[in-house]
Design a protein that fits this description.
By secondary structure, the protein is an alpha/beta fold. It is built from 16 helices and 14 strands. The protein folds into 2 domains: 150 residues, Rossmann fold, CATH 3.40.50; 181 residues, Rossmann fold (3-Layer(aba) Sandwich), CATH 3.40.50. It is globular, with a radius of gyration of 21 Å.
């Protein structure tokens, strides 16, 4: 368990079933790489069960938001969230009204019992800061450890087709579907392939995503999302796609995780022009952000016409991700958090 000089972190993942291949990938990307990096630096730190008596608790469990008001205790409590939970997800007027009347007040009550909220993007942090102390730390370090095989394959392969890739939760598949429909002529070119890694069924809409992809009648390959293999799968693509609905506050506030995940695998990226995505695009030529349908058409065509440069751009993207989003960089941010609570790390 450790000694009295060991920093014990009680961590609650969003999905406690981490052995399940379909468990939330973000749970692995949060505190675990940070703790391993701290150990490499000689810090005595361990992740323990949340019910253990600890000095610091880090919770990513969304169900906590619906529990009765948590009473503050002696330990410090950090809520680690990767989505903008204070913005409505644009599921229709009735559901948005329900969110504003019933959901947001409950969320705010919980957040006010926390000592700190760790947000995934600056936009999210700004939402939280009205109610609780907040900071921004990206949860991306895990991706960099899974890149080597993808990079080697890209350097040595001579693909006949240009593969665009998308991965994500099944409920976000409509963003990709709309992008493909808007550019159906492009995606039906003989030398263009679409690789999709997601859930077979969207439980929210009751839709079979694999069947929906086939109905688009494009050259495509579907793979079921699995937390053990999804980065290796998506890394087979040369260009990653990250479309979002810019009119939706919830989607627009997403962090840069997906873009950095693609970059870590040596992929160029075409993405929606959210604040977080655009901040990355400004700093790396392998990323093109899009505000309009015309921007998307131009960016897709750019990579199609410049495919000879894509591998080199992908290598630049990988080195950028490793330089700015490594476990070392992310650990530095967490150390600042720990020290803000006067913890000796």
């Amino acid at each position: 368990m450790g000694t009295k000089n060991t920093l014990l972190i009680g961590f609650e993942p969003n999905n406690p079933d981490l052995a399940n291949p379909q468990a939330d990938a973000a749970d692995r990307a949060r505190i675990y790489p940070v703790v391993e990096e701290l150990k490499r630096r000689g810090v005595n730190v361990e992740i323990v069960a949340p019910e253990t008596r600890v000095t610091l608790r880090v919770s990513a469990r969304r169900s906590r938001l619906w529990e009765p008001r948590r009473e503050k205790k002696e330990e410090f409590w950090i809520f680690d969230v990767s989505d903008s939970i204070l913005t409505p997800p644009n599921l229709g007027l009735l559901r948005n009204f329900w969110f504003e009347v019933k959901v947001r007040p409950q969320l705010v009550r919980y957040l006010r019992t926390c000592d700190l909220v760790v947000a995934g993007s600056e936009v999210q942090s700004a939402h939280f800061s009205s109610y609780v102390r907040s900071c921004t730390i990206p949860d991306v370090a895990i991706y960099l450890d899974q890149a080597d095989s993808s990079l080697q394959a890209k350097v040595t392969a001579q693909p006949k087709s240009l593969t665009f890739g998308w991965d994500g939760q099944g409920l976000n598949f409509p963003f990709l579907e709309q992008l493909v429909r808007d550019n159906i002529g492009f995606f039906r070119r003989e030398d263009v392939k679409l690789l999709v890694v997601t859930d077979r069924r969207d439980s929210l809409r009751g839709v079979d995503n694999e069947a929906l992809l086939r109905s688009l009648r494009v050259n495509s390959e579907f793979r079921v999302w699995d937390r053990h293999t999804y980065m290796r799968d998506i890394g087979e693509a040369l260009v990653g796609l990250a479309p979002l609905d810019l009119a939706c506050p919830f989607a627009s506030a997403k962090p840069e995780n997906k873009v950095i995940a693609y970059m870590s695998q040596g992929m160029s990226v075409v993405c929606a022009a959210t604040q977080a995505y655009s901040n990355v695009a400004l700093r790396n030529p392998a990323v093109r952000d899009c505000k309009t349908a015309a921007d998307w058409r131009e960016s897709l065509e750019y990579f199609y016409q410049n495919r000879d440069d894509i591998v080199e751009l992908g290598m630049q993207a990988h080195h950028f991700a490793r330089q700015h989003y490594s476990a070392e960089r992310v650990a530095d941010r967490w150390i600042d958090v720990f020290r803000s609570f006067n913890l000796n790390v």
